[in-house]
Every structure is written in structure tokens, then in C-alpha cells.
Specification:
The structure holds two protein chains of two kinds.
Chain A (H helix, E strand, L loop, with lengths): L11 H28 L2 E4 L2 E4 L3 H8 L1 H36 L7 H13 L2 H12 L6 H7 L13 H16 L1 H12 L3 H9 L4 H29 L3 H7 L12 H10 E2 L2 E2 L2 H26 L9
Antiparallel strand pairs in A: 1-2, 3-4
Helix pairs in contact in A: 1-13, 2-3, 3-7, 3-8, 3-10, 3-12, 4-8, 5-11, 8-10, 10-13, 12-13
Chain B lengths: L1 H18 L4 E7 L5 H15 L3 E7 L5 H11 L5 E4 L3 H8 L17 H4 L12 E14 H6 L8 H14 L3 E3 L7 H11 L1 H4 L2 H9 L7 H13 L12 H9 L3 E7 L3 H7 L4 E4 L11 E12 L6 H11 L2 H10 L4 E2 L10 H12 L1 E3 L14 H14 L4 H13 L7
Parallel strand pairs in B: 1-2, 1-3, 5-6, 8-10
Antiparallel strand pairs in B: 3-8, 4-6, 4-7, 4-8, 4-9
Helix pairs in contact in B: 2-15, 8-17, 11-17, 11-18, 17-18
Classes of the chains: A mainly alpha, B alpha/beta.
């Protein structure tokens, strides 16, 4: 009993264990983040940095030349995200449902094969698909020709109306393994007793999926959605490796990431402007923050959790 | 005293063996990564042989990123000693920012005409900040074998040009013209600024535009877009997704008959293509019209104002003004035509063909480079998008010109 006051003693080990992570995280995440926010409030006049407050944001949203590019990039980004939500995640769930079927043979082979593109570098994926789809050297026109569908072929990456969707689908191809794996893990963690109980009540086959499994994996789907959102709004690599920083044709594949890159670092004749670039980065940060908050407070808190 | 000198020399040679401590090493920033081998094997050894004690490193970056990378390096103080200069406004901005040193007093400068230097001078021509290296000439390179096979002759007028394209298309064994719109700049550089001078009468139109006496919505500036719109039908299938290297490969593999070119392609094409090539200048509208060619002052070399090796760098820049450099450069890189006053003998027939047009036609430079790409929106940049849209037929030439004129007038007072 006399030991009780001892519990009040300051617990140094917590500090000791936290310090390395906090220091590293501060140095490479928190400090750059706040420094970017700070940079957005400055501009350069005659090689001298001057504080201009929110002037960069006024230019970004007020000047028609900047705001047009910004809204174009944001709109493209939303389309990029919707394609992922409508194609990648349903296919991921479907694949996971099929894979978790107990009588499927070679399940682990399929699982690895579908997951492999995820670990490939963006650059490889970008260049490989650029070559596959190339009207000159690519295998896509030949393959379509072999099945008599040549008329369906178009230089997809070169047409304004298709380029962004094509790239979004390439990205779906690359990343469909992630939702598949997460959902697969969630499906495996559903206890057999629940499914058996359902079977006794006459819920089998696909209705077992819709009525029992799907509600149980909803939290995982929520996590996947938010991961997709953050991933897509930070996307840059694929577009850059396939279309370059000008995000052609005519900026039709320009998303916030490439817009920010072009502004911050410059490209071709455009010189880098790190202050304007930081303003765009800040806008991206705010957009993602709002999205994540909507999810956390609007959806996550209302989601029902089941304890087995 | 002599003994001591000998001793120092001996000492230096032993140190030099391991660390080259006695040498000054100059680093060259450039966008010409295609020329890496030529610099390392030909140009630099020639300089080093003549100037012992100075070592030179050629470190190019990707052309698309050169301007941005260079600016960041200069701001950060990590740029090389010698800076390859883009013409006009891009380099002028560097000089004004204090990144390029004033080279007006350099001895070698005497070997360049004022026209050659104009691309790297302040507006009042009082300061020259880069040593001119070369200009490039625009035109069309064609596959001689394909032309012989189809019985075509070199087109002189625009009608003949399109008739030839039509004949090649009808025959079907060659793609009429190898160009894509994927990378955007080709359409403007090898399209608009290639054929355009014949319409706006070269310098006359270019200077009138700068003075505000002509507008981009005038006929002579709109018509090239209308002509470009006719090109679309003769480019390869899927040209919308065709990149610049794709176009080069299609032509050098012998799959296309005509390549809208800049003379800088010559050395690459000579190495890649195994068929005979010829060149023709941009066709004129009517037979007998005066012809105008784009003979663009394209490349120069300046001195990083913050360079710790300024003395050695000036030695190098001075050497660049000699006839030795002019002849090495022009022959190592056929298609980059020396801007110096030295008589330079060129051996390459294709390069000779290009340079012969200087005698027949009026020379001009690209219309968008001087002064007009100083503001935002940058007219050169906008011209890329407009040329692509014209070829694709996405917008009418009149709409495109109106947009360009609005953009230019938004910041350029003589056009308001």
C-alpha cells in the first residue's frame, strides 16, 4: 500500500522512447510542412524575399490565368479519384471476395500476381504503359487488330478526352492489389461461426456476402476510401512519367501534383516559383485535410463496429 | 630558383597523379545532353591540350528541365562555372539577376558580329553576357530514297509541298511527315516558326510585332496556323500521342518521307539513318516569292558571376572565340552553325545544304523569343499550345490568334 505514491513519479521511459520518433518526425515532416505554409506567404521581388500575406492565394484564385489552371487541375483530380472509387475499389472487393472463396485453387498465385504491380516503380509503370499504348511501337493496336477490334483503338494518351481516364485506369491496374489485400484480410477475420449461423438461417452464397460479410468489412472499405483519396490528391508520379510536367495534351491530365511541381520547380520555359508553388501545396494540404476531416467526423464516428 | 621551380613541378606532378590538385576544374552547365560524347571526346581534349592546368567537365541536364534546374542551382550557389545560355529573355533575366558576368571586354568577342551578339545583350546593347556559339536553321529533311522511289521532286511552293504529301499518302508505303504533338514544342518550333517567316516576311514582321505595328490577329500571323491545320492529315496514325523521340525514330528507320526539322538534328540523323537524306527550305506561297528562313541564334556560353575560377573560365570563353573552336564545333556538330566571323569549312553535305539557304533567303529568328516572352503569359509557351491545337483542328486559326493576341496585350504595352 505504501508503494502508491511511487506511481506519481514522472515516467521518464516514455520520454526516452518517444524522443527519437518525435525528433525524426519533426525534422522531416512537421518542420517542412510548416515551412511550406510559411513560404506561401512570401514572394520574391528583385531577388529579395518579401512578406506579402495572402497575396499569393489572391493570385491563385483571383487571377483568371492561375485560377483556370487550378480549377482545371482540381477538377481533373476529382475525376481521377472518382475513377479509382468506381473502378479500383469495387474490383478490389470483388477480387478479395473471389480469393477468399474456400474452394478456389491457386488462390495465392492469383493474389501475388495481382499484387505485384503495386510494388513496381511508377516510372516503370508509366513508361511500360506508354509503350503498350503507343500507336507506333505499342502492342495494343496489334492485339486489338488480332481480334478484329482495331477500330476501337485510338491514341488514348494523346487525346484530350481520353488521356486522363486512361491514366486513371493505368493507376487502377497498378494499385488494385491494395484494396484487395485489405479486404481479403478483413474477410478472413470474419469468424466461421457467424457464417454458419447465417447458413442455418438460410443466408448462403451471394446473399451471405451482401448481408453478412459486406457490413462487417465496411470499416475496411472506409479506410480504403480515405487512403485512395489521400493517395489520389497527392498523385504526381504516374502523370509525370507518362506525360511529363506539362501534363498534356493541353493540360487535360494536369492534376494538383503536376500543377504544383510545374509551378514550384519550373518546366521547359516556365521558371520555378517556390512561393507560388508553396501556395498551391498549401491549397492541396487544405483540400486533403478537409476530405480527411469529413471522413473522420462524418463517417468514421457513425460507423458501427462489431465485436466478435 | 630554377631548382625550386623544378621541385614544385615535380611535387605537383606527384600530387596531380592522385588528386589533380594543381588543376583548376571548370564545370559546364548545358541542356545539350545529346552532345556529351562530342564534348568529352573532341572539344574538351582540344582545349585541354592547348591550356594545360585547366580541366573541363561537361555536365548537361535534361533539356526540358534545364532552365528550372539552372535557376535553382544559381540561386543555391551550386551551379557550374560556365553556363550555356538560352537566347534572349531567359538569359537576360539571369544577367539582370546578377548570375551572369559581363563579358563585353572579353578579347574573343571581337570575332562576333553585332547580329550574333544581339541575342545575349542588354536591350541597349551596352553589355554582352554570353559568347555566341551557334545558330540553327529550320527546314525540312527528306528521305531521298523515298522521293526517288515515288518519283517526287523537291517542293518549292506550298502547293507542290502539299501535292507531294498527298502523293506519299496515296502511295501508302511511307508516312508522309514525321511529327507528333505529344511534347508540344515541336509543333511550334518545327511547325509555326519553321513555315511562318515566309508569311510575316521574316525580320520585317517580327520587328513590327515587337513595335506593336502588327498584331497576331493580322493575316500574316494567322495564315501559318491555317497551313498547320492542313498538316494534321499527313502526320502518322496516332500522331497525338507521338513524342519527339518517336518522330526521330520513325524518320531514321525510314518509315516516313519528310521530317520538319531544325538543323540540330543532322548529327543524330547521320548516325541513325542508313538512307540518303536531303533538305529543302520552307516552301513559299507562290513560285518566285522571296524566301525567308528561321536562322535562330540558339546557343551561347556565359560565365557564372559567382564562379571561383573566373580567370580560367575566361580563358575558356576566349578560346571559344577562336577559329579553332569554331571549326571543331561546326564539324563535330554539323547543323550548329558557327556565329563567329571566321570562315568555317563544313564537310557535312546536309549541313552545307542548310547553310546555303543563307545566300538565297532572308534570315530571321523565331518570332516569339525576343522581348515577347518576357511576361506572363509567355508568348512562346502559348504558341506551343496554339500550334498543337491548330494541327489537331481543335480550334480555328482565328480563335487561336485572338487568344494569343489577348494574352500578349495583357502585359505588353506596345500591343495594347
Amino acid at each position: 500500500m505504501s508503494a502508491r505514491p511511487k506511481a506519481r513519479r514522472f515516467r521518464w521511459h516514455i520520454v526516452v522512447f518517444l524522443t527519437p520518433a518525435v525528433l525524426v518526425y519533426t525534422a522531416i515532416m512537421i518542420f517542412p510542412l510548416f515551412n511550406t505554409l510559411r513560404l506561401a506567404l512570401f514572394t520574391e521581388v528583385d531577388n529579395v524575399r518579401v512578406f506579402v500575406g495572402l497575396e499569393n492565394f489572391r493570385t491563385l484564385f483571383g487571377d483568371p490565368r492561375w485560377s483556370e489552371s487550378f480549377w482545371n487541375a482540381l477538377g481533373n483530380n476529382f475525376w481521377f479519384f472518382f475513377v479509382h472509387m468506381l473502378v479500383q475499389n469495387p474490383i478490389g472487393i470483388l477480387l478479395a471476395a473471389i480469393l477468399s472463396h474456400p474452394r478456389l485453387r491457386f488462390a495465392s498465385l492469383y493474389r501475388s500476381a495481382i499484387f505485384v504491380p503495386t510494388i513496381l516503380s511508377f516510372v516503370i509503370v508509366g513508361f511500360a504503359w506508354k509503350l503498350i499504348l503507343s500507336p507506333i511501337w505499342g502492342i495494343a493496336p496489334g492485339m486489338l487488330d488480332a481480334v478484329g477490334l482495331k477500330f476501337l483503338f485510338a491514341p488514348w494518351l494523346g487525346r484530350e478526352e481520353y488521356a486522363l481516364t486512361t491514366l486513371a485506369l493505368v493507376s487502377v491496374w497498378q494499385f488494385v492489389g491494395i484494396p484487395m489485400m485489405l479486404i481479403y484480410a478483413a474477410l478472413l477475420s470474419i469468424p466461421g461461426e457467424i457464417l454458419e449461423a447465417g447458413e442455418i438461417d438460410g443466408v448462403t452464397g451471394s446473399s451471405a456476402f451482401w448481408k453478412i460479410k459486406l457490413p462487417l468489412i465496411l470499416p475496411s472499405i472506409g479506410i480504403i476510401s480515405i487512403l485512395t483519396f489521400v493517395g489520389n490528391f497527392n498523385a504526381f508520379d504516374l502523370i509525370y512519367s507518362a506525360q511529363g510536367a506539362l501534363a498534356g495534351p493541353d493540360f487535360s491530365t494536369d492534376i494538383l501534383g503536376t500543377f504544383m511541381y510545374r509551378t514550384f520547380f519550373g518546366f521547359q520555359l516556365q521558371l520555378g516559383d517556390r512561393h507560388m508553388g508553396s501556395a498551391i501545396a498549401t491549397a492541396m494540404f487544405v483540400i486533403i485535410l478537409i476530405g480527411v476531416c469529413l471522413y473522420l467526423f462524418g463517417i468514421q464516428t457513425r460507423m458501427r463496429r462489431y465485436q466478435f | 630558383m630554377k631548382m625550386m621551380k623544378l621541385g614544385v613541378a615535380l611535387l605537383a606532378s606527384t600530387v596531380a597523379g592522385t588528386a589533380a590538385a594543381a588543376d583548376v576544374t571548370l564545370t559546364i552547365e548545358s541542356w545539350r545532353n545529346d552532345d556529351l560524347a562530342l564534348w568529352q571526346n573532341t572539344i574538351i581534349p582540344a582545349f585541354e591540350a592547348a591550356n594545360p592546368g585547366i580541366k573541363v567537365n561537361f555536365t548537361p541536364s535534361a533539356p526540358a528541365e534545364y532552365n528550372a534546374v539552372l535557376n535553382s542551382k544559381l540561386d543555391a550557389g551550386s551551379a557550374g562555372d560556365l553556363i550555356t545560355c538560352r537566347p534572349f529573355d531567359a538569359s537576360l533575366a539571369l544577367y539582370e539577376a546578377g548570375h551572369l558576368a559581363d563579358l563585353s571586354d572579353l578579347g574573343g568577342m571581337a570575332n562576333f558580329s553585332s547580329v550574333a551578339k544581339s541575342a545575349w545583350q542588354t536591350d541597349d546593347a551596352s553589355v554582352t553576357f554570353c559568347v555566341p556559339m551557334a545558330s540553327v536553321i529550320h527546314g525540312f529533311i527528306y528521305n531521298k530514297e523515298a522521293f526517288d522511289e515515288l518519283g517526287l521532286s523537291v517542293p518549292q511552293t506550298e502547293d507542290e509541298f502539299f501535292a507531294a504529301l498527298e502523293a506519299i499518302k496515296k502511295d501508302g508505303s511511307y508516312i508522309p511527315m514525321a511529327m507528333g504533338t505529344n511534347d508540344q514544342w515541336e509543333a511550334a518550333t518545327m511547325g509555326y516558326n519553321n513555315i511562318g517567316p515566309n508569311y510575316w516576311k521574316g525580320e520585317e514582321g517580327r520587328l513590327a510585332l515587337i513595335a506593336g505595328e502588327q498584331k497576331l490577329t493580322d493575316d500574316q500571323w494567322v495564315a501559318p496556323y491555317a497551313t498547320l491545320a492542313r498538316w494534321g492529315a499527313y502526320l502518322g496514325d496516332g500522331y497525338e500521342a507521338q513524342t519527339y523521340p518517336d518522330s526521330q525514330n520513325i524518320f531514321t528507320l525510314g518509315r516516313a518521307a519528310i521530317y520538319p526539322a531544325g538543323s540540330w538534328e543532322i548529327s543524330g540523323f547521320n548516325a541513325q539513318a542508313d538512307f540518303a537524306m536531303g533538305a529543302f527550305k520552307p516552301p513559299v506561297q507562290n513560285a518566285g516569292d522571296d524566301c525567308y528562313i528561321s536562322d535562330h541564334t540558339d546557343i551561347a556560353m556565359g560565365l557564372n558571376a559567382a564562379s571561383p575560377n573566373a580567370e580560367a573560365a575566361r580563358t575558356f570563353l576566349d578560346w571559344m572565340g577562336t577559329s579553332e573552336f569554331a571549326s571543331i564545333y561546326a564539324n563535330a556538330l554539323p547543323g550548329f552553325f558557327s556565329l563567329s566571323n571566321h570562315e568555317v569549312a563544313m564537310n557535312d553535305p546536309l549541313a552545307q545544304e542548310f547553310v546555303s539557304w543563307r545566300g538565297e533567303c532572308h534570315s530571321t529568328i523565331r518570332s516569339t523569343y525576343q522581348i515577347l516572352s518576357r511576361g506572363t503569359p509567355n508568348l512562346e509557351n502559348e504558341t506551343w499550345g496554339a500550334s498543337v491545337a491548330a494541327i489537331k483542328g481543335a480550334k480555328s486559326p482565328e480563335e487561336l490568334s485572338a487568344e494569343l493576341q489577348d494574352g500578349l496585350a495583357s502585359w505588353y504595352t506596345p500591343q495594347q
